[in-house]
Write a structure and sequence with these properties.
- The complex is a heterodimer.
- Chain A is mostly beta strands.
- Chain A is built from no helices and 11 strands.
- In chain B, a hairpin with an 8-residue loop joins β9 and β10.
- Classes of the chains: A mainly beta, B mainly beta.
- The interface between A and B is medium-sized, with 26 and 22 residues.
């Protein structure tokens, strides 16, 4: 089954404790992206990756890091989480090929609470 | 630059009534447009997409959207609402240029369906 998986689904942590949210896709997609979703603000892009070892900032990259060492994985790293990073996070992937229609496939989300 | 505006953060309809969720876009090139749905506690699921073929696009669950270039609109409709349609709906436009593959999302419209 084609899917994007994220782990963990729920996480409660304390300020300053480094954490990583994993994202993996099994569709051989080149493009992957991280979003955060906050009430009234919709989805805002954090980072994206066009391919292995190619990453770039989205609209709200401060406080986050990413890496893309393998095509299927795109982890999101919070080196020193703060309460304003409490949010719902989504990973997504897509194919850049014209025939794909550029549809993005989303993971189930990770709800992060930083106290 | 591309952008998306969704009119109305909350829409309430009665079961069996017409559903109309509004989306206007801004794009200097022919756009690729998407509607996604997010059911409570779930990720985003593609409802339908416009990729410059037919202007009336049919999606899943009885939804459809019409691309109107003159009005720069891509409104989502469904003739008869079901209780199960209660969800948040996001309109998105694909970005052209350096970050191809990126989508810009509207802030979302939460649909409530009254019995």
């Amino acid at each position: 089954e084609a899917q994007v998986t994220q782990n963990p689904r729920y996480l409660i942590t304390v300020t300053g404790k480094k954490l990583t949210v994993t994202c993996s896709q099994n569709m051989n997609h080149e493009y992957m992206s991280w979003y955060r979703q906050d009430p009234g603000l919709g989805l805002r892009q954090i980072y994206y990756s066009m391919n292995v070892e190619v990453t770039d900032k989205g609209d709200v990259p401060e406080g986050y890091k990413v890496s893309r060492k393998e095509k299927r994985n795109f982890p999101l790293i919070l080196e020193s989480p703060s309460p304003n990073q409490t949010s719902l996070y989504f990973c997504a992937s897509s194919s850049p090929l014209r025939g794909s229609g550029y549809e993005q496939y989303f993971g189930p989300g990770t709800r992060l609470t930083v106290t | 630059a591309q952008s998306v505006t969704q009119l109305g953060s909350h829409v309430s309809v009665s079961e069996g009534a017409l559903v109309l969720l509004r989306c206007n876009y801004s794009s200097s090139v022919p756009p690729y447009l998407f509607w996604y749905v997010q059911y409570p506690n779930q990720g985003l699921q593609l409802l339908l997409k416009y990729t410059s073929a037919a202007t009336l696009v049919k999606g899943i669950n009885g939804f459809e959207a019409e691309f109107k270039k003159s009005e720069t609109s891509f409104h989502l409709t469904k003739p008869s609402a079901h209780m199960s349609d209660a969800a948040e709906y996001f309109c998105a436009v694909r970005v052209y240029g350096g970050s191809q593959g990126n989508l810009i999302f509207g802030k979302g419209t939460k649909l409530s369906v009254k019995p």
